[in-house]
Write a structure and sequence with these properties.
By secondary structure, the protein is an alpha+beta fold. About 20% of the residues lie in helices and about 40% in strands. The N and C termini lie far apart (about 70 Å). About 30% of the residues are buried.
């Protein structure tokens, strides 16, 4: 009998390499080259496994490297994983795992156990009023109006935990999507921000999970509206 599609045979049995969906398995990662770069002050970021097999892992991640870069990722459910970037994605990368045959067999067993015993579904995942967003990709707006891609670890009506390639200080003002806040503490990895307003739960993900492509038109509309209001009745706003 020939090998089934996605199942590899070896001397001890079959390794099931069909990609598994494990949404919301949160962890952290770094690229090995970052530890040899003295100019880089932030070397560890939050991530999330979106798909996993004994051969590779697809990670949602705020900072990628280059194809071939060595990656070390840590997850409570899986331990430490080593590998290389195999493919770059829009917000993350595919990591080819460095596992020998025995380790791949153990990984296949672990994936099967996790699928049977643990539910990583995102939409209803809440803990202490904190929500793990379905899509962790968002944008920080800094005081100078610059935009920084970020990974939302979790978010609540009053604040959020963020991982991004930016050094922040306590008290630093910024916005997550369209919600303004201030940095209140450092995390490992990332930092926490407190919003200056309480955001209604029904609006939370819509207002905090925003890409630059979504934010820029909104910012322009707000600036135009503010210019029109400042001009007042009977006065034309200056041309852009």
């Amino acid at each position: 009998m020939g090998a089934q599609d996605g199942i590899h045979q070896d001397g001890r049995g079959a390794i099931d390499d069909r990609t598994r969906v494990l949404v919301n398995m949160r962890g952290r990662y770094h690229l090995e080259k970052w530890h040899q770069a003295p100019e880089r002050h932030i070397t560890q970021f939050a991530c999330r496994i979106q798909r996993l097999s004994p051969e590779r892992a697809l990670l949602a991640a705020p900072v990628a490297g280059e194809i071939g870069d060595r990656v070390v990722a840590q997850f409570n459910e899986l331990g430490r994983l080593h590998g290389r970037i195999e493919r770059l994605l829009g917000f993350g990368f595919v990591m080819a795992l460095d596992l020998d045959t025995e380790a791949r067999l153990r990984m296949a067993d672990k994936i099967a156990w996790i699928e049977r015993h643990k539910n990583f579904a995102v939409p209803e995942a809440r803990r202490h009023a904190r929500i793990v967003p379905q899509n962790p990709e968002s944008t920080l707006v800094l005081a100078d109006a610059s935009l920084v891609p970020c990974f939302v670890i979790d978010v609540s009506s009053s604040g959020a935990a963020i991982s991004a390639d930016i050094e922040v200080e306590i008290g630093m003002p910024l916005a997550l999507g369209t919600v303004v806040g201030r940095v209140v503490r450092h995390l490992n990895p990332g930092f926490a921000i407190a919003f200056i307003e309480i955001v209604r739960p029904t609006e939370l993900e819509h207002r905090t999970i925003r890409t630059p492509e979504q934010l820029v038109p909104e910012m322009r509309q707000r600036i135009a509206a503010a210019a029109g209001a400042r001009a007042g009745p009977g006065r034309a706003a200056p041309a852009a």
